[in-house]
Specification:
The structure holds two protein chains of two kinds. By secondary structure, chain A is α+β, with helices and mostly antiparallel strands. Chain A is built from three helices and 13 strands. An eleven-stranded antiparallel sheet of chain B has the order 6-5-4-3-2-1-11-10-9-8-7. Classes of the chains: A alpha+beta, B alpha+beta.
Amino acid sequence: MKPIFLAILVLSLAACAAQQPMRLPELTAREDVQSDTACESVFPRGHWQFVHAIEFSMQDGSGGTVLGVTSLAGDEITCALMTVEGFTLFEAVSRPGEPLEVRRAVPPFDKPAFAEGLLDDVRAIFLPPAAKNIQYGQLGDKALVCRYAGADGRITDILPTADGCWQIKIYTPELRMNRAIVAQSCKKMGNSLIPEHLELTGFRNSGYTLKMTLVQAENPNR
Amino acid sequence: MKFFFSLLAFFVCMPLQVMAGAAELPGQAPVRLRSVQADFVQEKQLKILTHPIISTGTFAFQAPQSLRWEYRKPVPSLLLMHGGKVKKYVERDGHMVEDTRMQLDAMQMVLSEISNWLDGRFTDNTMFTVSFPQKQTILLTPKDQGMAAMISSIELKLADQKGLLDEVTIFEGPGSLTRLTFKNRRLNQELPASLFTGR
């Protein structure tokens, strides 16, 4: 009986641990204008168009490589996915306050949850989070951080100078990690820091990773 | 994913099929091609794109069913078909690795169509209605409604040299198309089998 009891105990403890809220990394507040502008530079402003090669991997081992187009016009986002061979798999437009408009969706990219999840990923990378409260400060390792608290309880930490580029960490209202974005090889374009490489890890239901390599970036406003 | 790969297989193979001897107008004797090699430029246009996405690559075909279809830029990838086997490689972290996650049965199904094209049986296609709107142009319209929702038509522009194509344009819908332009074509050269089996 002892092994069974131990197994039940371990499972119970694990279940309790999963229910316990995490703690956010400790932030030492700083009233520093520099961190504010640094965090703003993470998000491209105005009209932009990006083309990325995207390698996606799901936790079950499935995945593939596609080309992604993201077009930004203020808060309006249009995005498209296509195969390397040029076949358009998905195209959708997101406008503030309006339902998502899916213009084209080829199976298996025709599920509503896919569209919503994709646009959430795109917003997380390209748009500053909606926040009712922003704190500026440093983490334990002295990294600058802007902590956005959303009205929905989500917390977004933006680290504008991490590893010479930037990182974004998004937590659920229960303070569990929801998404982590690591940008590398940043280039200054106008007021924005445009990364050559992005890696987004999603921690929802089934985990997934997007590795994005910049193919082209255009800023028609410039 | 099967539907997606069927489309992908068609999309990859289509230009090959027509390059490999099918580009014949009615009344012309079929050109029996033993092999074709060419470079291609692929231009992807979408309504939202301010400039098209340009991809470049090469392909080689040898009758009856050997193919090497390779993208060099912007995303290196390679499709090989030989001896009834199909393999796909994609670049990951700077290295070409075999994409074993791809379902390849659809690829083999599409390959069986190629022999029809090699025999110049251009109007016998089960997937498309074929019309000839201009002297040097062939228009393919999908018969299947499911396919028509994804691809509205395919336009083939014949080259002056009999049996060859200059351009293939795949129309997906309003404002969305993919145009493949071929150049540096070499016909009926002896190609080593290793071209279709190795990276």
